[in-house]
Design goal:
Length: about 250
């Protein structure tokens, strides 16, 4: 049975290749998201390392990484689902994937690998082959990593798998935001589900990210955008057909 759900979009800075510092920032935002009653917290694409493709092989995480253990403990202690981005080592490829780790409050850890790569990403990374939808509070949430949402098949598959919320963890630049926002709005209106964007605010991988964490309702209308590169949380509450949102600054 569906109940109300609250999702936190973490707008955080990242430091190139510094997993320890980035992980520390993640743990802070996980705890703060929990204080605001979030059931899920979502970080941008490759949030644990930065979008540093030339370092992906060197920094790639194994499924048994101790960093995942730290995220899992935070998930359990704060009773919140955590979605963080990182390069992932997979058995079927010599190259890592652009992945996400999903930690659940019951101690379960799952993974998703980006299926649709931007031009140039294939030089450093392999693509995934499986869609990913998970359950929270009676809701089915489909997860996309950046270019995934540019493929009409990706959001359609999520809908066919029962998704009623679609989340994109991404790196979108100032120049690319307008076009990508139109795509995400169209996905929301076409499939009649809320769409949420968690984006970078730092310069990473040679790109100047624009922040602008945004929530679209099932009609494709913007409910709220951070409209900034500020370090903050964007909180989205979904209750039935109603979608509410608020932006909160980092607690110091």
């Amino acid at each position: 049975m569906k109940t109300g759900i609250r999702i936190s979009l973490a707008q955080i800075p990242v430091v190139k290749g510094n997993v320890v510092e980035n992980l520390s920032n993640h743990l802070t935002m996980i705890a703060q998201s929990s204080l605001y009653g979030a059931n899920v917290v979502v970080f941008p694409e490759l949030s644990l390392t930065g979008y540093e493709l030339e370092l992906a092989q060197e920094l790639a995480f194994s499924p048994q990484s101790p960093h995942f253990s730290a995220l899992s403990r935070a998930s359990i202690e704060n009773d919140i689902v955590v979605i963080a981005g990182c390069p992932l080592n997979i058995k079927s490829s010599a190259k890592p994937t652009i992945g996400a780790v999903i930690c659940f409050p019951d101690g379960t850890i799952e993974f998703y690998s980006k299926q649709y790569l931007h031009e140039g990403e294939g030089t450093f990374c392999a693509s995934g082959s499986e869609d990913y939808v998970f359950n929270v509070e009676g809701h089915r949430i489909g997860l996309a990593i950046c270019a995934d949402f540019s493929s009409t098949a990706h959001s359609l598959n999520a809908r066919m798998l029962g998704a009623d919320i679609y989340i994109a963890s991404a790196l979108i630049s100032d120049s690319g935001f307008e076009a990508d926002a139109k795509i995400l709005s169209h996905i929301a209106s076409k499939h009649r589900f809320p769409v949420l964007l968690s984006n970078h605010i730092s310069s990473t991988g040679g790109w100047s990210a624009c922040g602008n964490n945004t929530i679209w309702n099932a009609s494709g209308d913007v409910v709220l955008s951070s409209a900034s590169k500020e370090h903050c949380l964007v909180m989205c509450s979904i209750n039935g057909h109603e979608v509410y949102a608020a932006q909160v600054q980092q607690i110091t």
